[in-house]
Amino acid sequence: MSKQSEKDIPRRLLAWYGENRRDLPWRRTADPYRIWVAEIMLQQTRVDTVLPYYERFLEKFPDVGALARARPGAVLKVWESLGYYARARHLHEAARVVARRFGGRIPDDFDDLRRLPGVGAYTAGAILSIAFGRRVAAVDGNVLRVIARLFAIKDPVDRGDTRKRIGEIAARLVPAGGPGHYNQALMDLGSAVCTPRNPDCRACPLATICKARRNGSQDSIPAKRKRAAVPRREAAVAIIRNDRGEILFAGRPSRGLLGGLWRFPGGVLKDGEAPAAGLRRLLREELDLGVRPGEELFSVEHGYSHFTVTAHVLSCAVRGPIPASRCGIPLRWAGPRGLSRLAVSRLERKILAALPPTRPARQPIEDGKKTPNRVKEPQALRTREKPMSKDHIPATPAIRVLKDNGVDFVLRPYKYEERGGTEVAARELGVEEHLTVKTLVMEDETKAPFLVLMHGDREVSTKELARILGVKAVKPCDPAAAGRHTGYMVGGTSPFGTKKKLPVYVEETILSLPVIYINGGRKGLLVEMRPADLVRLLKPVPVKVAR
């Protein structure tokens, strides 16, 4: 590529960025702390996934000092379900270093930043260029791909020497003016236009100087070395309840995969090992606990970055009392309220969602006493109230829409009460009512129907909504009309899969929640999902009408 073409890259890219820049909260600030938090969250995670977590995190920890003073468990709880939990631990540790060594000010030196836990070359470059205006490259996966195509670099980009070569090219392309905007433009181009598959070369501002496009190799670049098949593991976990219906959790080590989170007792099985036998062995070896496993309740599939696991879930009775810790591992009983304070992984959340409502269980089996021949399956598992999973739930139009669109969701069934509304649902599921979302079928003075999504603990200001919509009045539809519009019964109305396609309005504060619980298309069933997926499927209009 000629020197003139290289000089054209920043100019063209910045012009394109000026017209196509995404409005993101971390782009409305020059605060190094907020930019740092965003960059850590965005590692290996999509923007729409990060958005609600980012806002929630900054509400809880608005500055370095607040984060440095926080307890590790509190940080992990706010991070819960965002994944890659080492990021949260490193961010917390780094905040303490910044508070102690730099007086709470994010350093503006590359080497100082690199020494912080969890800060690599990319993150340091992003902070320096965006927050401090330094002429430093920030090379992530998107940038690797864009530059590899621009210069037709056919060597695998996951090889060290190739990454070094691309890094050198990236460094010399960064302009002196607007380096932060340039780096963000390059990332945006990679995520929106120069995508891994089927790049949209017609929309690319660099198409005429791209070597890969000229020789027709854009679909084969960047090359990557063939990866080994993702291994599969079998695991067994114990559901142990006390006489108050609380469930036993074990603490994980502070380091390693999912470090600092809480889990169900259990672990990975040996090859060919039966779940019940393996669980007895695991709990004896790890916790010195004697257990009597019952029948397997269900199994849950879950994927991590480097392996997948099938977790076999068994109800267990315990021999003898259980102390607060065992073999150096902390143990804790948790009911619905306690669960709201425990940070657990997505796998644990999947299991909890499939369990029947917490209820008092049989008394623990004491040492020396005769044990029953068989631990009976809870009654709820032998009736039509059996806990539901994505694979076993009777399909509703809403569930079909979620599945067909690849939404990551968890089914949250509960014991339905007529006229109980979201208050009962929140109580039964042990979640905050503010996180539940009710679907209201409303109409204007011409009887034109539409949906309003509102926090479970808030009401709709019909006067304000009418003003926003530019109509004379709005009111709830009568149940019969609502059923004709949606195809759902009152108490089981979901905004997904409605009989008629209806305009959707959403209270804007719902979109900043880390997770929501919304009707799955039948009575007694909520769906746990991210607000970003709701936005993607429904494209609702945000409004401020809560009272």
Layout of strands and helices, then pairs:
Blueprint: H1 3-20, H2 32-41, H3 47-60, H4 64-69, H5 72-79, H6 86-101, H7 110-114, H8 121-132, H9 141-150, H10 160-173, H11 179-192, H12 211-215, E1 232-240, E2 247-251, E3 262-263, E4 266-268, H13 275-287, E5 290-303, E6 308-319, E7 325-326, E8 329-334, H14 336-339, H15 346-354, H16 397-404, E9 410-413, H17 421-429, E10 436-444, E11 449-455, H18 462-469, E12 474-476, H19 479-486, E13 504-507, E14 516-519, E15 525-529, H20 531-538, E16 541-543
Parallel strand pairs: 1-6, 10-14, 11-13, 13-16
Antiparallel strand pairs: 1-4, 2-3, 2-8, 5-6, 7-8, 9-15, 10-11, 10-12, 14-15
Q: Regions with pLDDT < 50 over 5+ consecutive residues?
A: 358-391
Intertermini distance: 60 Å
How many DSSP-defined strands? Answer: 16
Mean pLDDT: 85
Helix share bin: 25-40%
Tally the structural domains. 3
**What is the strand content?**
15-25%
User: Which fold name fills CATH's third level, the topology of the largest domain?
Assistant: Endonuclease III, domain 1
Task: Write up this protein.
The protein has 547 residues and is an alpha+beta fold. It folds into 3 domains: 3-215, Hypothetical protein, domain 2 (Endonuclease III, domain 1, Orthogonal Bundle), CATH 1.10.340; 232-382, Nucleoside Triphosphate Pyrophosphohydrolase, CATH 3.90.79.10; 397-543, Alpha-Beta Complex (YbaK protein), CATH 3.90.960.10. It is 36% helix and 17% strand. It is built from 20 helices and 16 strands. The chain has helices spanning 3-20, 32-41, 47-60, 64-69, 72-79, 86-101, 110-114, 121-132, 141-150, 160-173, 179-192, 211-215, 275-287, 336-339, 346-354, 397-404, 421-429, 462-469, 479-486, 531-538; strands at residues 232-240, 247-251, 262-263, 266-268, 290-303, 308-319, 325-326, 329-334, 410-413, 436-444, 449-455, 474-476, 504-507, 516-519, 525-529, 541-543. Strands 9, 10, 11, 12, 13, 14, 15 and 16 form an 8-stranded mixed beta sheet that branches. It is globular and about 75 Å long. Residues 358-391 have low confidence and may be disordered.
